[in-house]
User: Which sequence fits this backbone?
């Protein structure tokens, strides 16, 4: 039976009380912790780096989902892998040699994901379907939390679902996920929902995680 996984995006956590926020996420029953790395070049924002991730990894035993929104992601895979990442996702648009980047992730025995911006067509992923564990579909322009879901991306999710067919590849969706947009993404084929600002502003995070997970 298919169950949607929920990835809590730390981009929306209270950084002054990060230990408490990590415990709150753990108690909510969320499946993954989603960790965005931004360099101010590939996307117009700066976020966390390696030292913060090392601190997070020391404080939790949750599945760590690292999303590299940076240029030259291959240069940083070793550090994040050794710090405790379980899944490392990089942007197709940022990698000079995506196959080499995937091989580098595999070298450290981690799951490998490729992400695509809204403007990148689904068919650009076709050469990599035998190489990766996950495709991350951005349903906002990457860089800032709190943006609204781009409904035109739903067709792209569905197209990717049809492309991968019976392959063991998960589809993760990130951007504007809440109780109104999650059903749209799941019905199109999403396996993992990344939720940040919507999830962290809830008083009862567990109730919200349970609700998102039950969406069919």
Assistant:
């Amino acid at each position: 039976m298919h169950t949607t996984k929920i990835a809590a995006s730390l981009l929306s956590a209270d950084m002054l009380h990060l230990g408490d926020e990590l415990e709150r996420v753990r108690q909510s029953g969320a499946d993954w912790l989603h960790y965005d790395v931004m360099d101010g070049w590939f996307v117009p924002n700066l976020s966390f780096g390696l030292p913060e991730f090392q601190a997070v990894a020391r404080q939790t035993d949750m599945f760590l989902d690292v999303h590299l929104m940076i240029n030259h992601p291959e240069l940083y895979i070793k550090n994040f892998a050794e710090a405790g990442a379980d899944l490392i996702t990089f942007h197709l648009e940022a990698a000079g040699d995506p196959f080499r980047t995937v091989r580098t992730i595999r070298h450290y025995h981690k799951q490998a994901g490729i992400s695509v911006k809204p403007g990148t067509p689904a068919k650009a992923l076709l050469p990599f379907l035998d190489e990766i564990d996950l495709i991350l579909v951005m349903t906002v322009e990457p860089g800032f939390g709190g943006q609204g879901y781009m409904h035109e991306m739903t067709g792209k999710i569905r197209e990717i679902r049809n492309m991968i067919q019976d392959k063991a590849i998960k589809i993760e969706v990130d951007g504007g996920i809440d109780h109104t947009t999650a059903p749209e993404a799941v019905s199109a084929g999403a396996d993992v929902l990344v939720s940040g600002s919507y999830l962290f502003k809830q008083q009862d995070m567990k109730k919200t995680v349970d609700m998102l997970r039950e969406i069919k």
Remarks:
- The longest helix spans residues 18-28.
- The mean pLDDT is 95.
- The beta strands are 5-9, 32-38, 63-69, 87-91, 111-116, 134-138, 170-174, 192-195.
- The domain at 5-213 is CATH 3.20.20.70 (TIM Barrel).
